[in-house]
Amino acid sequence: MAKIIAGVGSSHVPAIGAAIDNNRTEEPYWKRVFSGFEKSKEWFTKTKPDVAIIVYNDHASAFSTDLIPTFALGAATEFPPADEGWGPRPVPVVQGHPQLASHIAQSVILDEFDLTVCNKMEVDHGMTVPMNLVMGKKNPDEHWPCPVIPLAVNVVMFPPPTGHRCLMLGKAIRRAVESYPEDLRVVIFGTGGLSHQISGPRAGLINSKWDKNFLDNLTKDPVKLSKIPHIDYMREAGAEGIEMVMWLIMRGALGDNVEEVYRFYTVPASNTAVGHIIMETRDKPKPSARKSSARKKPAASKRAVVAKSKAKAKPRRAAAAAKKVDRVRS
Amino acid sequence: MARREQAYDDIPGTFVFDAERAREGYPINTFCMSLMKDENRKAFKADEAGYIKQFHMTPDQEKAILTRDYNRMLELGANIYFTAKLGATDGHSFQHLAAVMTGNTQQAYADMMLAGGRNVDKNRSTTGMNTPVSLSDDVFAAGAAKPKAKAKPAAKAKVAKAGAAKAKSKTKAKASAKKSSPKSKSSKKRK
User: Is the interface score ipTM higher than 0.90?
Assistant: First the structure.
């Protein structure tokens, strides 16, 4: 059985790609960004997944406004880097995993997610920049360390899919992967964001507080994130910050039990706040182990306090939280 | 028909590329896509006004392109990832375009980014909705009820919300006071 073992969130700023391609990674400005991914490269080498699913968005490279698919899954055997106006990035052609990709397509469509299937597609910096950041710099004559299944999401034309839809699609992808007969260890990437606006007079907007809360809740409470309306993303995290919904597909694919193993955040890379997180999936702890660990944690009492404080402001939520505390304590 | 009003129209300095703009701006974005090919870039550079005729734009759209009015292009349905191709055809970096759209010199724009970017405060809405919403505010973050809801006289419409946040932080203070007393535990058990 195939299994999703980890999720990676990463910004996909094009200027990061340009810095790699033009050997500028040692300049102080860029070193600040790249140093945050050294640990990630080690992690990826050690983790050695068999396949990566990369959720990203196309930036007027493979898709013009002739066709705007909300979810487009790449089932080709390979995906050449797109020419984004300065020639294709000097990176290897991305090898696909057509068998797993078509299995996922079949499974999630019957699970009521109407994907577009792409048997021919070029991929742009949205996908290759996070690959570089986590898999390292690769020359065109080298190979990426594993096959990749691209999942392109429309976040360019408003409205993109809702956060909730994204989280649910992630869950459907998890079910699809787990029903694939071959033993494969799969890592899923969510890319884009974090806060940034690159269009119009408000360009340059950054909201670090929002970003931090987003990263915190990604492990803690993704359901809460899935309820954020689009307008809040645009207002608070910039018109292009809405890309963050793609991280929720990744998160949804990880299941309930995850552990954050690494995080990095810096401002800016060009116009954008760079966010990065690695979460590993954990098997459900046994009920008994869960109880004892919860009791030991001082956090349990803290949680009770929080629940109490909420009681006056938001009775319903507080009641739910109190219930949770009771369950932990009983 | 005039553009339909949208809830997000009050976000300052922002032209949301929605389905309506995508339809309206289709000729501009198609023109920009054509600049992916070198021969088209050359043809455009040789005769700009003549080259863009084939895309059947409105006169306003044509004018915005010929005068390189990037904000106006966005308003008329262009998308930034597409107009960036026009910028590249002119030999401009993306940050140059951002500086132009924000009315800055490139250096001033780059400095702003290095200093942490444009602050979201006072940049949320043109109609006074300048109180943080959801994730931006601790009101939304679980358990974080520090008295951070600063009084924002400008945001009259949201005073009530800020007040609620303050009340919440007080409640937490009370609750944490209880935490230290052993009574709180027993009361919990009774429940």
Answer: no
pLDDT at B52 over 70: yes
Q: Does B122 touch chain A (CB under 8 A)?
A: no
Q: Pick the catalytic residue from A125, A143, A164, A230.
A: A125
Q: In angstroms, rounded to a whole number, what is the distance separating the alpha carbons of residues A125 and B113?
A: 21
In the annotation, is A164 catalytic? no
Q: In this structure, is residue B60 part of a structural domain?
A: yes
Per run of 10 residues, the mean pLDDT along chain A (length 330 residues) is: 97 96 96 98 98 98 96 98 89 98 98 97 97 98 98 98 98 98 98 97 97 96 96 96 98 97 97 98 71 47 48 49 41
Could you tell me if B23 and B70 lie in one domain? yes
Evaluate whether B78 touches B32 at the Cβ level (below 8 Å). Answer: yes
Kindly indicate whether the domain formed by A3-281 is annotated with CATH number 3.40.830.10: yes
Residue B105 included in any domain: yes
Residue A59 bears catalytic tag: no
How far, in whole angstroms, is CA B24 from its chain's centroid? Answer: 20
CA gap B54, A309 in Å, rounded: 64
Q: Note whether A60 contacts B32, CB cutoff 8 Å.
A: yes
> Between chains, do A206 and B116 touch, taking CB under 8 Å as contact?
yes
Residues of A in contact with B103 (CB under 8 A): 201
What are B123-151's pLDDT values in tens digits? 999 987 778 877 765 544 444 344 344 44
Contacts of A14 in chain B (CB under 8 A): 94
Q: In chain A, what residues touch B7 (CB-CB under 8 Å)?
A: 231
pLDDT of residue A313: 47
- A240 contacts on B by Cβ (under 8 Å): 80
CATH number at residue B55: 1.10.700.10
Domain that holds residue B33: 19-114
Count of the separate structural domains present in chain B: 2
Closest CA to A79 of A65, A71, A89: A89
Domain boundary among B114, B138, B163: B114
Residue B110 and residue B159 share a domain? no
Return the SS3 of A190.
Answer: strand
B113/A270 touch (CB, cutoff 8 Å), yes or no? yes
* Domain parsing of chain A, residue ranges: 3-281, 290-330
Task: Tell me whether residues A64 and B134 touch, CB distance under 8 A.
Answer: no
Element (H, E) at A153: strand A148-153
